[in-house]
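Recap quiz, item 2
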Amino acid sequence: MIFTVAIDGPAAAGKGTISRAVAARFGFRHLDTGLLYRAVGAKGGDPVAAARALTAEDLARDDLRTLEAGQAASRVAAIPEVREALVAFQRRFARSEGGAVLDGRDIGTVICPEAEVKLYVTASPEVRAHRRWLEVGGDEAQVLAEVLERDARDMGRADAPLRAADDAVVIDTTALGIDEAVEAACAVVRARFRPE
Ligand code: CDP
């Protein structure tokens, strides 16, 4: 059974929480593709070489969730050769047996345009910054500035810019709690998933 759930959207919109919950609910594997770009950015040196030689160890670093790692990720993510080096792994994962959930920026548009379900998860910048601030602490205004800067870079880049696929279902989590957002996503998957 091949079944792909593509979940895209801007920073801190709730993609990770929703993706993990959908994967657990339907028994699918989950890939947080942002982690790939965070690991490339954190590795330092030549980002293209880093992307081509990414290891499981690189992905297991405990400093990939910081604001700095997010900024570094969005800078290396604008380099076409970096993206190219990560495509095959993501495509294989998306179409592997047993069902897969991938979350990122370009899953429904570039990595897996044939995905059976495409969700675009978003929320107001203020709400997203507040949620990220609860995770990382520090100065909330600074967190908002970083979120906005990263969104602008991700949406403005020439290669695989962040946008909703034409056939994506948009879930705006601005006024939704975690449970409501998860239920909204699961309802879309349930309507399309027909296991044999
Ligand atoms: O968790 P959050 O939404 O803040 O970020 P993330 O999903 O970990 O992604 C970090 C950065 O990696 C993004 O700002 C993008 O620049 C880049 N990214 C990408 O270009 N394409 C993806 N499929 C996933 C992430």
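The longest strand covers residues 117-122.
Residues 11-12, 15-16, 33-34, 37-38, 70, 73-74, 77, 104-107, 150, 154 surround cytidine-5'-diphosphate (CB under 6 Å).
End of item.
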